[in-house]
């Protein structure tokens, strides 16, 4: 009998790749979306599988426990992937309470619904490297044992949710895994995130559709991987005999400046001719450096990323060249 999966937040970057991945493995896939008065943009990333009837969509709002309870009770999923969140760090400074309500309160709602109505379900919770803040081990890596000291409302909200997962796992013997995912990108990444923002604007400049790219801190460093690789790690976590937490990362770090330089170079341009900085894009408290140690995931999950930084960025560049030339 095929397994039954529920993806909370089915229209996001990660969720769209995860849905395709699970369908290839023969799963029956359910997904949740929020009710929106502009439905045209709600299911863009999953339009192909939605139109083909391969995913059953349900309306859910994480701030509405009745809707959360209803979907969890109805679907009785073998595996629940909780990927919904207010996930933009800069926005979290502008909307801190909303970020906390959705990311922390929403996770609590999911856990309570599973505990009460679907206790057999295995739960994956999308944690984040933002929980580390500027905390780092002596060797320059962040791993599962590194102290968590977030420097944004988003990071704080995710740490609260991460702690709730630990509590429910221990208190109620629930199967709950947290994936501490470092930055992961793809052509499906939101264009208000620095990688896709950079690629899109650079391609527009190349095609004569724009003249400049405006960014914030060029010297912050991130560990960038591909979303396709990272959703496989999510699935692998729920195939284990016991629940656990895993850092998912490439183990490599690059500055925003290095990323920008690579993109413009691939397009045959000098980035310094087109890039400006503006302090309005900087955070009130900066997160300067992220570099994850995926050793535990490689050893226990036999997980290994297939994409390199270069192949990932090349894919994003090719995507926008094709799209904008249309």
Overview of this protein structure:
41% of the residues lie in helices and 16% in strands. It contains eleven helices and 13 strands. The strands form four sheets. Strands 3-2-1-4-5-6-11 form a seven-stranded parallel sheet, with helices on both faces. The model has no long low-confidence stretch (mean pLDDT 95).
Summary tags:
globular, 326 residues, alpha/beta, two-stranded parallel sheet, 11 helices
* N→C terminal distance: 43 Å
| Largest β sheet strand count, sense and barrel closure | 7 strands, parallel
The residue ranges in which pLDDT falls below 50 over 5 or more consecutive positions are: none
Quantity of strands, as a count: 13
Kindly state the mean pLDDT as a whole number? 95
Tell me, what's the shape?
A: globular
Structural classification = alpha/beta
Helix content: 40-55%
User: Radius of gyration in whole Å, from Cα?
Assistant: 19 Å
Strand content: 15-25%
- How many H/I helices? 11
Reading side by side through the largest sheet, how are the strands ordered? 3-2-1-4-5-6-11
Order of helices and strands: EHEHEHEHHEHEEHEEEHEEHEHH
Topology summary:
Layout: E1 4-8, H1 13-24, E2 28-33, H2 47-51, E3 55-59, H3 65-75, E4 79-82, H4 89-94, H5 96-117, E5 122-128, H6 153-172, E6 176-181, E7 184-185, H7 194-206, E8 213-215, E9 221-222, E10 225-226, H8 227-238, E11 245-248, E12 254-255, H9 256-266, E13 275-277, H10 295-300, H11 309-325
Helix pairs in contact: 1-8, 3-5, 5-6, 7-9, 7-11
In short:
With 326 residues, the chain is an alpha/beta fold. The protein has 11 helices and 13 strands.
